[in-house]
Amino acid sequence: QSGFGDKFKKSEGAWDCETCLVQNKAEDTKCVACMASKPGTSHSMTVVLLVHLSFSWHWAVLISSVSI
């Protein structure tokens, strides 16, 4: 007999996203919520670019996650 709590147990191979903590299916290679890579599938790094906006005296910071 299964109880109410059994409805929330992880299925075989399910994984939790390290970025947003959403639970994903075993066959998902990227998080269904934030598209972060499944741990162990590829390496990713965060790239921070400081860009001078030529039309003004302002600077912009661009942050991106890149898979390598």
UniProtKB/TrEMBL annotation:
Gene3D superfamilies: Zinc finger, RanBP2-type. The keyword Cytoplasm does not apply. One of its GO terms (biological process) is mRNA transport. It is found in: Nucleus membrane; Nucleus, Nuclear pore complex. Its main location: nucleus. The keyword Acetylation does not apply. Keywords: DNA-binding, Membrane, Metal-binding, mRNA transport, Nuclear pore complex, Nucleus, Protein transport, Repeat, Translocation, Transport, Zinc, Zinc-finger. It holds the Pfam family Zn_ribbon_RanBP. This is Nuclear pore complex protein Nup153. InterPro entries: Znf_RanBP2, Znf_RanBP2_sf. Its cofactor is Zn(2+). GO terms for cellular component: nuclear membrane; nuclear pore. GO terms for molecular function: DNA binding; zinc ion binding. It comes from the Eukaryota. Residues 11-40 form the RanBP2-type domain. Belongs to the NUP153 family.
